[in-house]
Design a protein that fits this description.
Layout lengths: L12 H30 L1 H25 L7 H34 L1 H31 L7 H30 L5 H15 L5 H16 L6 H23 L9 H32 L8 H6 L3 H8 L5 H21 L7 H24 L18
Helix pairs in contact: 1-2, 1-3, 1-4, 2-5, 2-6, 3-4, 3-5, 4-5, 4-7, 4-8, 5-6, 5-7, 7-8, 7-9, 8-9, 12-13
C-alpha cells in the first residue's frame, strides 16, 4: 500500500500545478533541443555516446537518493516527476536565464568580470531557484508525498540529479567545440570523467537536496509557526545558493577544486543526517503510540523501521499466502505511521482509523489461515508458532 496520496478532488491547485509542470517541462525540452540541435546533427556519434553516458548516470544515480530515504523509498511516480523536472524544465529555463543575466554582467561590469565571475554570479540564483520550484510543484500536485524534511531532501536530490545529468550532456557537447572537434569521442569521455567522477560528488544533487529539505520543512504539517517554517525554508535555499557559488567561484583551480566538492558533500550529508534522525524519532514515537490501539505491537515497532527487519518478519518456514498477508500488514502499518507523521494534518485521523481497521482485518485473515488452510488436510503434528504480527 502506498503512503503517497494526492490532494482531495475539491482542491484545484493540483491540476493547475500539474498543467504548469507539464508545460514547463515541454518548454525546457524545446529550448534544449533548439540550442543544441546543430551540434547533435554535426556530431551524431559523439552525441549518441553522451546520451548513453547520461542514461548510465541516471540509472545509477536514481537508486541512491531513493535508497537514502529511511524506512521505505518514495514512489517511482513522484521520483520520476522530480527527475523529469530537473532534466527539462529546470535545465531549459536555466539556459535562457543564465544567458540573459550573463549578458547583463558583461554590459554592466565588463567582459573580464563576466568571464571570471559570470558563472558564480549567475547560476546560483537562477539554477537553485528553478530546481527548488520542482519540489514546490510536487508538493502542490501530490501533497502527501512530502510529509517531513527528509522527503524534501530526497526529492530535491532527484531534481538535482536530473539537472546534473543533462548538464553533463550539454557540457560534453560544448567540450567537443572547445577542443576544436579534433576527437569528439575523447572530448565526451574526458568531460564525463571530470563531471561525474570528480565534481559529481558535490554538485547539483547536493545543492538541491539542501534546498529541498527547506521545502519539506515548509510544507510538513507539524504544527510549527508559519514564520519559522518560512525562515528555515529560505535559509536552506540560501545555503544551496552559497554551495553553488562556492562550486563555481574561480578559486582553488584544478585538482584543488576537490576541496569545494568535499565541502558541498559534507553540508548535504549533515543536513541529511539531521533530517533522518528527526524523521526516525517521529516514526518510532508514532509506532509506540499505536501499541495502545493494537495496530502495531511492540515487537513489530522494533522491526518496522528497518528494511531487513521487515524481511526477517516475513521469513521463516511459512506458506506463501501467510507471507503475502504479513507483507500487507506491514504495508498498512507503514501507511498508518506515514499518515500520522505530520502532527497537524486534519486528514490523518480519518486515514488512521481506516488503516487500523484494515490491519485488524488482515490479522484476522492471517489467524484464520493458520488455524485451517482451505483445501489442505490438517497437520498430524503441531507446528511451531510463527512470530506474532
Amino acid at each position: 500500500m502506498s503512503a503517497v496520496g494526492v490532494r482531495p478532488a475539491g482542491e484545484r491547485l493540483a491540476p493547475v500545478a500539474a498543467t504548469v509542470a507539464l508545460l514547463a517541462c515541454l518548454f525546457g525540452l524545446g529550448v534544449i533541443g533548439y540550442e543544441y540541435r546543430d551540434v547533435v546533427r554535426v556530431f551524431p556519434a559523439a552525441a549518441a555516446l553522451a546520451g548513453f553516458l547520461l542514461l548510465l548516470t541516471l540509472g545509477v544515480g536514481y537508486l541512491l537518493p531513493r535508497r537514502f530515504r529511511p524506512v521505505v523509498a518514495p514512489a517511482h511516480a513522484t521520483s520520476l516527476m522530480c527527475v523529469g523536472w530537473g532534466m527539462t524544465a529546470a535545465t531549459g529555463c536555466a539556459i535562457l536565464a543564465n544567458s540573459g543575466l550573463g549578458g547583463i554582467w558583461a554590459k554592466t561590469r565588463g567582459v573580464d568580470f563576466a568571464d571570471r565571475w559570470g558563472a558564480a554570479s549567475t547560476a546560483p540564483f537562477n539554477e537553485e531557484t528553478l530546481k527548488v520550484c520542482g519540489v514546490l510543484i510536487l508538493a502542490l500536485i501530490a501533497s502527501r508525498a512530502i510529509r517531513a524534511p527528509i522527503d524534501g531532501w530526497v526529492y530535491g536530490a532527484l531534481v538535482g540529479l536530473g539537472f546534473q545529468a543533462v548538464e553533463n550532456l550539454l557540457y560534453a557537447l560544448n567540450t567537443i567545440l572547445l577542443d576544436g572537434a579534433t576527437d569528439p569521442g575523447a572530448s565526451v569521455d574526458a568531460s564525463f570523467a571530470a563531471r561525474v567522477g570528480i565534481t559529481g560528488w558535490g554538485s547539483h544533487w547536493a545543492m538541491s537536496a539542501v534546498a529541498g529539505t527547506g521545502v519539506g520543512y515548509l510544507v510538513a504539517r507539524d504544527g510549527r509557526p508559519p514564520a519559522r517554517r518560512v525562515a528555515v525554508a529560505l535559509g536552506c535555499w540560501v545555503t544551496a545558493m552559497g554551495m553553488h557559488w562556492l562550486f563555481n567561484a574561480p578559486f582553488l583551480p584544478g585538482w584543488r577544486g576537490i576541496v569545494k566538492v568535499a565541502v558541498n558533500l559534507a553540508i548535504a550529508l549533515l543536513v541529511y543526517r539531521t533530517a533522518r534522525r528527526h524523521y526516525l524519532a517521529r516514526f518510532r514515537e508514532v509506532a509506540a503510540e499505536e501499541a495502545a490501539t493494537g495496530a502495531i505491537r511492540p515487537e513489530e515497532a522494533a522491526l518496522l523501521p528497518r528494511r531487513h527487519g521487515r524481511r526477517q518478519a516475513r521469513g521463516g518456514p511459512r506458506p506463501r499466502p501467510a507471507r503475502v498477508l504479513i507483507r500487507e500488514i506491514e504495508d498498512a502499518q507503514l501507511a498508518l505511521v506515514a499518515a500520522r507523521i505530520p502532527r497537524a494534518d486534519p486528514r490523518s485521523r480519518t486515514s488512521a482509523e481506516r488503516l487500523r481497521e484494515e490491519i485488524a482485518t488482515l490479522r484476522a485473515h492471517l489467524r484464520a489461515g493458520r488455524v485451517a488452510s482451505p483445501g489442505r488436510p490438517a497437520p498430524d503434528r503441531e507446528e511451531p508458532p510463527a512470530p506474532r504480527l
